[in-house]
TrEMBL record:
UniProt-listed GO biological process terms: L-leucine biosynthetic process
Binding site for Mg(2+): 218, 242, 246
Stated name of the protein: 3-isopropylmalate dehydrogenase
Cellular location(s): Cytoplasm
Cofactor entry: Mg(2+); Mn(2+)
Similarity comment text for this entry: Belongs to the isocitrate and isopropylmalate dehydrogenases family. LeuB type 1 subfamily.
GO-annotated cellular components: cytosol
Cofactor note: Binds 1 Mg(2+) or Mn(2+) ion per subunit.
Residue numbers binding NAD(+): 278-290
Residue ranges of domain Isopropylmalate dehydrogenase-like in the record: 3-345
EC number: 1.1.1.85
Catalytic activity, as annotated: (2R,3S)-3-isopropylmalate + NAD(+) = 4-methyl-2-oxopentanoate + CO2 + NADH
Pfam families per the UniProt record, alphabetical: Iso_dh
Length: 350
């Protein structure tokens, strides 16, 4: 029996996850679903954004389908109680260091992209984001200097083992795609990035067939909108990957279109799958959220954790067919509700 943990979370999380679940159920794969509270929903119900029972459910499951966490009512809480700590806690507890964020333009979405159609059409990349280190997990705090000046700090660091294991995934992915790996850093300013670059260069000796390039993150942000077609696999740190992937989403039409897989090993066992977007409090409860990123995350779950490539392709083809047929939520310029978009994908599932 295969168990999928459903951690729907806050805001539009439960709305989009429900559609992804419907699609998984329709495939008749003999999956069992186990729901657990996470984020603000868990804080209000159980006093903690990642209660031990939820972590247990996540650890026991064969894979996790995650919605989103974040609730404006929690923004003033002590940090350890904030909803966002739940996703950070899961990534750390499960050792999910490799975050795959594919960005492709589905046919017909040229008009939704923020780029000119002929530029947008070329997007077909994966942003591989390191997920267990960087400034996210360094020492952090507030302090007050003797003169009363307040200071906040977050230490950025990577050790070479952390860089090497994500770089290996980057090279391996590039080998399975177009043999192009672009490592994005800020080595002109940051020692963390200099070590990152040195380690990536050392490793490249093992992958002579992969064309390795390096790009500073500010230039990468510019190149992503100038000519996204130049990228195949981008490998980068936690913070840069977070920012660049939101940016890439608008090149591909909408933040509601980009799925992700968070893996603890190249094989993908026990992964966590979630849209790259957040809980979108501005549209929560209105049926406006695009469920495609969540549905496509379910496809990634089948591919990477359950070894069900055929079923994954079926879901991706159904999303594509629904879009080609004109199915659109408001973010894509349409009027469909979240569940109508789910209906359209289900109807296209063959
Ligand atoms: N992994 C996660 O759980 C995750 C990811 C990002 C942000 N967050 C949290 O979500 C909350 C809101 O953050 P934010 O507003 O910066 O980012 P967001 O991604 O939630 O929303 C940004 C903008 O994109 C829109 N949007 C997002 N997803 C959409 C969808 N599926 N369909 C249509 N439109 C969509 C929103 O309406 C909003 O205008 C915060 O608490 C943040 O910390 C959580
Ligand atoms: C909610 C937040 C902690 C998270 C991140 O920064 O990783 C989000 O932006 C994401 O992209 O998954
Ligand atoms: Mg983000």
């Amino acid at each position: 029996m295969t168990t999928i943990a459903i951690l729907a979370g806050d805001g539009i999380g439960p709305e989009v996850t429900a559609q992804a679940r419907r699609v998984l159920e329709a495939l008749d794969l003999d999956l069992t679903f186990e729901d657990a509270l996470v984020g603000g929903a868990a804080y209000f119900a159980a006093g903690h954004p990642l209660p031990p029972e939820t972590l247990d459910v996540a650890k026991r499951a064969d894979a996790i389908l995650f919605g989103a966490v974040g609730d404006p009512r929690c923004d003033a809480l002590e940090r350890r109680f904030r909803p966002e700590q739940a996703i950070l806690g899961l990534r750390a507890a499960l050792g999910l260091f490799a975050n795959l964020r594919p960005a492709t333009l589905f046919p017909g979405l040229e008009d939704a992209s923020a780029l000119r159609p002929e530029v947008a059409r070329e997007i077909d990349m994966v942003i591989l984001r390191e997920l267990n280190g960087d400034v996210y997990f360094g020492e952090k705090g507030f302090r007050t200097a003797a003169n009363g000046t307040r200071e906040g700090y977050d230490v950025m660091s990577y050790n070479e083992a952390e860089v090497r294991r994500i770089a290996v995934v980057g090279f391996e992915m590039a080998k399975r795609r177009k043999n192009k790996l672009c490592s994005v850093d800020k080595a002109n300013v940051l020692e963390t990035s200099q070590l990152w670059r040195d380690v990536v260069v050392e490793l490249s000796a093992d992958y002579p067939e992969v064309a390795l390039t390096h790009m500073y993150v500010d230039n990468a942000a510019m190149q992503l909108v100038r000519n996204p077609g130049q990228f195949d696999v981008i490998v980068t740190g936690n913070l840069f990957g977070d920012i660049l992937s939101d940016q890439a989403s608008m090149c591909a039409g909408s933040i509601g279109m980009l799925p992700s897989a968070s893996l603890s090993a190249w094989s993908g066992a026990n992964g966590l799958y979630e849209p790259i977007h957040g809980s979108a409090p501005d549209i929560a409860g209105q049926g406006k959220a695009n469920p495609c990123a969540a549905i496509l995350s379910a496809a990634m779950l089948l591919r990477h954790s359950l070894n069900q490539e055929e079923a994954a392709l079926k879901i991706e083809a159904a999303v594509s067919a629904a879009l080609v047929a004109g199915a659109r939520t408001p973010d894509l310029g349409g009027t469909m509700t979240t569940s109508e978009m789910g209906d359209a994908v289900l109807a296209a599932l063959v």
